[in-house]
Amino acid sequence: MLHHSFFKSLLAGAFALAGSATFAQTATPPDQIMVLVYPISQANKICLEVKKQPNAFVSVQLLTPTGEVLYQDHLPKKGDRFSQVFDMNQLKDGVYTLRIKQGKDVIVKSIQLQTSAPAPAIQERFLTLGN
To answer: Quick check: pTM over 0.70?
Structure first.
């Protein structure tokens, strides 16, 4: 199981990304959250950005393909934006689930890790995001 502090240490640079990211929706009902997940320039790392209402209770989980919780946290109630970088390099191939919950609303994003078939001494790893 990866530790919470491991992921917190990867937060460096995420705030710079938060300023340059745009959210697809411009008008949001006051009780909903917006979630953006995208790969960053470093191999097999993803960034999660959440735009929420101030004082809203929001939880984030990263689950293994078997449903084991790798990361779980509650976003700070203060503020309306949150960013987190996840390093997927130490994880085995498979489909991981990112679950963001606010009240009854749950947003689920899938993350597929796949290592290509071995070539003569060369391996590539692919990261695919989906809904």
So the answer is: no
* Residue 18, both tokens: 């938060």
Spatial distance between the Cα atoms of 95 and 80, rounded to a whole number of angstroms: 29
DSSP string, 51-82: E--TT--EEEEEE-TT--EEEEEE--SSSSEE
Sheet of 125-130, strands arranged across? 69-74, 58-63, 94-102, 105-115, 125-130
Q: How many CB atoms lie within 10 A of CB 93?
A: 12
Per-residue pLDDT reduced to its tens digit, 30-79: 567 899 999 988 778 999 999 988 888 899 999 999 999 999 999 888 88
Q: What is the pLDDT of residues 112-123, one digit of tens each?
A: 988 876 566 566
Q: Which CATH number fits domain 4-21+32-130: 3.40.47.10, 3.30.530.20, 2.60.40.1930, 1.10.260.40?
A: 2.60.40.1930
Cα distance between residue 117 and residue 84, in whole Å: 30
9 and 41 in contact (C-beta within 8 Å)?
Answer: no
